[in-house]
Amino acid sequence: MNDTVTQYSEQFAALSPVFSEGEPDWMTRQRGAAMDSLRQSGFPGQRDEDWRYMPLRPLTARAFDTDITGEVDDLPLDHWLIPGLESHRFVFVDGVLNDAISSNTGLSPGISVRSLASVLRQGPDALPGVSADESLPGNGFLALNAAFFRDGYVVDLDADLEADSVLEFLFVSAGKGKAGQARNILRLGPNARVKVVERHVSLDGLNALVNTSTRVVLEAGASLDYHLVETMGRGTSMINDVVVDQSRDSNLQIMTATLGGDVVRNNLKVRLNGPGAHCELLGMYAATGRQHVDNHTGVVHAAPHCSSRELYKGVLDKRSRGVFHGRIRVDQGAVKTDADQTNDNLLLSPDAEIDTKPQLEIYADDVKCAHGATVGQLDANALFYLRSRGIDPENARSLLTYGFVNDVLGDVEVEPLRDFLAAELSRRLISHE
Amino acid sequence: MLSIKNLSASVEGKTILRGIDLEVGAGEVHAIMGPNGSGKSTLASVLAGRDGYEVTGGAVTYRGMDLLDMEPEIRAREGLFLAFQYPVEIPGVTNLYLLKAGLNAIRKHRGEEELDAMDFLKLIKEKAALVDMKQEFLYRAVNEGFSGGEKKRNEILQMALLEPHLGILDETDSGLDIDALRIVAEGVNKLRGADRAIVVVTHYQRLLNHIVPDHVHVLAGGRFIRSGGKELALELEEKGYGWIEEQAA
């Protein structure tokens, strides 16, 4: 065990009686197993192929404080709201739901949004799928989350229910040096439809970790429009792990927008388990200063006649670094698969860097798989063209950058969110340092 | 309006302009003609402030200001407009957005209020009619997928909107069929006025049938070898550039 794991081990011994209180025994056992797994395997290191480009030290050199209260005074909530976005909003502070500052009344019947902490206290049978899951966490960060999580959202939509408003989950990191670790569950019954906006924010200089794990299950014909918006301040790093299982004819659009944070890692895995399922993975990342943004995606075509489309666009300025690793696996029998993956990058500075890597594993015949990656710079001719129309160089750069990511932004149907992302993009790339 | 004195410029160490003198007054239309490689486009680029052109001598005064000392966007805001020979495609940015950003930057510079979306839309629709441009082009990405003629029309639309004091048209006729040429020329003619000067840079005389210049200058080897009235263009058309180059030699 290294020092960091020892520190977590000590925290676990001290705190687990507190957060296990009232939880069913199976959950206490799962937490213990996760902690054991962390003790044994530790955190990933640069020698692990999947993590080799990640600067892991800021995340693993010391233990973050896992003693979370979720209480907070004086949160500048208004500062983080998206103008014009009408939503049912649930605010989590350091990964714990804070009802007092949420505006979550008036949900339609058939939509249930609960706090995981409260669900777990409803009795041993409250989460049958989760209680039966005896698999061990796949890496040290997932183990940390499974051992220490305090809360998260549990969303269930009844069959055929079409949610009329956006569900917004606002995760605020507020405590200095804390690790906010939510565990979320999002389940859509057959033919249900909903739009979800999940946001992660923090003030500058917290030295905090966000370590989130989300499980999504789409039953037959369900349709989810899921936006992950990561606009944390400087001094907050993040690991976000999302796993989606899709049944036949279900439809997923997931958009990951990473604009803030120091070191951010998104692990997104989508399994297309039933024929006719379709997923669209959109990504937009913009980094500057010494930010690091790492997107690992994996799409598994496990059934025939499924399609996946993946489009990630990144803009990297100053000494920032981006990583895109897109895996597509087509299982035996997954005939008529149609998979497409594109990663385009714009480097605004000679010191910025992108490592992009597609990985296709195809075990079936009669499939269509395409992938492509590009790295480019701002077009000097275009820049001069805009300046010759009276636009100053900063705005010209911002306009061209916006134009570059616009085909990802254009697919965001929630209009206030699209405007917010466009504004954040130019604000962060232009005003940072 | 514009006074160029003994202007020399080089590109990548190669001298292109070798002592240009030109006086353009308000209300005048000047045509600058010349064979390929004579320095026409270099002159247009130097006036607009494009990177990569080094001024090695001379001076340019524009409306009393030292033009060469101004950033490209300041030149634009002070009323200088370059219609590009090769208008640039900008994916992801609508024509409307570019036009509004440009117009408002210029209005702000002049101390005028920025136009709101409604007023802007009304204005741009008026201007689009001037160059016979369909409104759908306003909502498309800047020049993306535009034909050659549509791109040049878009340049003139921008000029009509930005209402410059000095418009420089760099080979606006290149790549245009006769109908497109007529539309573009009519657009330019509507913009002629007592307060506005226009410099038309062209290889061929045919554009000057539609935009009739007050003065014609012939550029060869980086300097003007002859200046005259509109009839000079006709003479050139008939006899070719070789004739005048021989005369100058």
Protein architecture, described:
The complex is a heterodimer of chains A (433) and B (249). Chain A has one domain. Helices cover 24% and strands 38% of the residues of chain A. Chain A has ten helices and 20 strands. Chain A has helices at residues 3-20, 25-41, 57-60, 77-80, 116-120, 128-131, 140-148, 380-387, 393-409, 415-431, and strands spanning 87-93, 96-97, 111-115, 153-157, 166-173, 179-180, 183-188, 193-202, 208-218, 223-231, 236-246, 251-258, 263-272, 278-287, 292-301, 307-316, 321-330, 338-347, 353-362, 368-376. In chain A, strands 2-1-5-8-10-12-14-16-18-20 form a ten-stranded mixed sheet, covered by helices on one side. In chain A, strands 3, 4, 6, 7, 9, 11, 13, 15, 17 and 19 form a ten-stranded mixed sheet that branches. In chain A, helix 8 (380-387) crosses helix 9 (393-409). The longest helix of chain A has 18 residues, at 3-20. The model of chain A has no long low-confidence stretch (mean pLDDT 94). Chain B is an alpha/beta fold and 249 residues long. Helices cover 39% and strands 29% of the residues of chain B. Chain B has helices at 40-48, 72-77, 95-109, 117-130, 148-162, 178-191, 206-210, 231-248; strands spanning 2-11, 14-24, 29-33, 53-62, 65-66, 80-83, 90-94, 141-142, 166-170, 197-202, 215-220, 223-228. In chain B, the strands form three sheets. A six-stranded mixed sheet of chain B has the order 6-9-10-3-11-12, sandwiched between helices. A four-stranded antiparallel sheet of chain B has the order 2-1-4-5. In chain B, helix 5 runs parallel beside helix 6. Chain B is globular. Chains A and B meet through helix 8 and helix 9 of A and helix 2, strand 7 and helix 3 of B.
Number of strands of chain B: 12
CATH architecture of chain B: 3-Layer(aba) Sandwich
Name the overall outline of chain A: globular
Count of helical regions of chain B: 8
Mean pLDDT of chain A: 94
The low-pLDDT segments of chain B are none
Q: N- to C-terminal separation of chain B? A: 31 Å
Helix content range of the residues of chain A, please? 10-25%
Q: What are the segments of chain A in which pLDDT stays under 50 over at least 5 consecutive residues? A: none
